[in-house]
């Protein structure tokens, strides 16, 4: 009986224990892989949310800029600048020069700010 029990133990129980240990290792590896995948999915979702918010903000700004552009274009459509320049050349020239300087200064300030970001 003792030898039969020993042989049974060696032939049946030991291989089962080895398979259980193997399967435990596989399950642990799968759990680790699942946790990594969940973390990756969470990071992608977070990135998607931030990208969506940024895109929404850009779309809002773009819409504001287009409205502003339409207002400026409407001013030019309503006024005959050539006629006003002929009638009062000094007034138009001073205003045009002042606004041109403001635009160039704004472009220069933006360029400096962007250049500073790159440094």
The tally of strands reads 0
Question: What string, H for helix and E for strand, traces the elements in order?
Answer: HHH
Average pLDDT for all residues: 86
Helicity, as a percent range: over 70%
User: What does the overall shape look like?
Assistant: rod-shaped
Described by strand count, sense and barrel closure, the largest sheet is: none
The number of helical elements comes to 3
Unreliable stretches (pLDDT < 50, length at least 5) are: none
SS-based structural class?
Answer: mainly alpha
Work out the radius of gyration: 37 Å
**Beta-strand content bin:** under 5%
Distance between the termini: 84 Å
Could you characterize the architecture of this molecule?
- There is one protein chain.
- By secondary structure, the protein is mainly alpha-helical.
- It has a domain at 83-119.
- It has three helices and no strands.
- It is rod-shaped.
- It starts with a helix and ends with a helix.
- The model has no long low-confidence stretch (mean pLDDT 86).
Summarize the structure.
Helices cover 96% and strands 0% of the residues. The protein has 3 helices and no strands. The chain has helices at residues 2-78, 81-87, 89-118.
């Amino acid at each position: 009986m003792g030898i039969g029990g020993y042989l049974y133990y060696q032939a049946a129980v030991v291989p089962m224990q080895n398979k259980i240990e193997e399967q435990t290792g596989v399950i642990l590896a799968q759990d680790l892989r699942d946790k990594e995948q969940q973390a990756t999915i969470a990071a992608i979702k977070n990135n998607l949310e931030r990208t969506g918010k940024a895109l929404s903000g850009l779309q809002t700004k773009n819409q504001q800029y287009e409205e502003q552009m339409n207002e400026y274009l409407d001013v030019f459509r309503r006024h005959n600048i050539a006629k006003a320049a002929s009638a009062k050349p000094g007034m138009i020239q001073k205003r045009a020069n002042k606004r041109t300087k403001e635009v160039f200064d704004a472009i220069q300030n933006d360029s400096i700010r962007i250049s500073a970001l790159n440094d």
